[in-house]
Write a structure and sequence with these properties.
The structure holds two protein chains of two kinds.
Chain A: H1 3-25, H2 28-31, H3 33-55, H4 62-88
Helix pairs in contact in A: 1-3, 3-4
Chain B: H1 3-9, H2 14-38, H3 42-49, H4 54-79, H5 83-113, H6 122-150, H7 154-180
Classes of the chains: A mainly alpha, B mainly alpha.
Chain lengths: 89, 182
C-alpha cells in the first residue's frame, strides 16, 4: 500500500462523509425520502468498500475483496429495503 | 489456487479477520433489527431521530476516518522500517480515538441533561445500545493502538490497525442508519 493511495482514500472518505452530512441537512428528505435513502446508503457502501480495500489492504487480495464486496452489498441492500418498506407499504 | 494460497493472500492474521467478520455481523444484525422495528412506527422514529445530534456524529465520522488513515499510514511506515514515524502516527490515531469518545460522551451527557434515556423511545434503546457498544470498541482500540506503539512489532501493528479499521467500518454503516435515514 503506497502512502499516496492512503491519502487518496482518506480524501475520498472525507468527501463522501461531507456528502452524507450535507444530504441529512438538505430538504430532500421531505420531498424524495426514497432517493435520499438510496443516496445515503450508497455513500455508506462506498465508504465501507474504501476502508476494506485501502485501509485494510484487501486491494492486494482481489478474491477476498470481491467476497467482502458481495456480503457488504447484500447487507446494505437489506438495510435499504427495510428503510424503504414503510414508504411503499 | 489452493486453500492455503487463498488464506495467505489475506492481509494479516486469519483470526483477526474472523473477529472482524463476527463484529460486523453482530452490528449488522443490530442495525437490521433496528430498521425492522422502525417499520412499525416510522413517524415516531423520525421524531425521536430529530433529537439526535447529527452534527456531532458527522464530526465524529471525520475524526474516525482520519484516525483510520493515520493507523493505516503507521502500518505502511512500520513495514517500510520507519519506526519512529509509525509510533507517532499510532499515538496520533489513538488521540483521535479519545476525541471521538469525548464527543460521544458529550452527546450522551446532553441526552441525559435533556431527560432522554434508553426508554424515552425505542429508537434510543438501539441508539444507546449500538453506539455505546461501538464506543466500547473504540476504547479497546485506543488501548490496542497505544500498546502496539510501545511494542511495535510489524505483526502487532498490522493486527491492531486491522481492529481499528473494523471500528471505522462499523461506524460508517452505523452512522447513516441511526442518524441519517429519515
Amino acid at each position: 500500500m503506497t502512502h499516496r493511495s492512503l491519502y487518496i482514500a482518506w480524501a475520498l472518505l472525507v468527501a463522501l462523509s461531507f456528502g452524507s452530512t450535507a444530504l441529512s441537512a438538505s430538504g430532500i428528505w421531505a420531498q424524495w425520502p426514497g432517493v435520499a435513502g438510496v443516496a445515503v446508503m450508497a455513500l455508506a457502501w462506498q465508504k465501507a468498500r474504501i476502508i476494506l480495500a485501502d485501509y485494510m489492504g484487501l486491494q492486494r487480495a482481489p478474491r477476498w475483496r470481491r467476497g467482502f464486496d458481495v456480503c457488504l452489498t447484500g447487507l446494505c441492500l437489506l438495510m435499504l429495503a427495510l428503510y424503504a418498506a414503510p414508504l411503499v407499504l | 489456487m489452493t486453500d492455503k494460497d487463498a488464506l495467505d493472500a489475506l492481509p494479516g492474521e486469519l483470526l483477526m479477520w474472523i473477529l472482524i467478520v463476527s463484529e460486523v455481523l453482530v452490528f449488522g444484525a443490530g442495525l437490521t433489527v433496528f430498521l425492522s422495528v422502525r417499520i412499525t412506527d416510522p413517524d415516531g422514529f423520525a421524531e425521536a431521530q430529530d433529537m439526535l445530534d447529527r452534527t456531532a456524529a458527522g464530526i465524529n465520522t471525520i475524526v474516525l476516518i482520519t484516525s483510520g488513515f493515520l493507523a493505516a499510514l503507521a502500518n505502511a511506515l512500520r513495514q517500510g522500517g520507519a519506526r519512529t514515524k509509525a509510533r507517532f502516527c499510532l499515538v496520533a490515531a489513538a488521540l483521535l480515538g479519545v476525541v471521538f469518545l469525548w464527543i460521544k460522551g458529550a452527546e450522551f451527557a446532553s441526552k441525559a441533561a435533556s431527560g432522554i434515556v434508553w426508554d424515552t423511545h425505542v429508537l434510543f434503546n438501539f441508539y444507546f445500545m449500538l453506539t455505546g457498544f461501538h464506543a466500547a470498541h473504540v476504547a479497546a482500540g485506543v488501548v490496542l493502538l497505544l500498546l502496539v506503539a510501545w511494542r511495535d512489532h510489524v505483526d502487532n501493528i498490522e493486527d491492531a490497525t486491522a481492529f481499528w479499521h473494523m471500528v471505522d467500518l462499523i461506524w460508517v454503516l452505523l452512522f447513516p442508519v441511526i442518524y441519517l435515514l429519515q
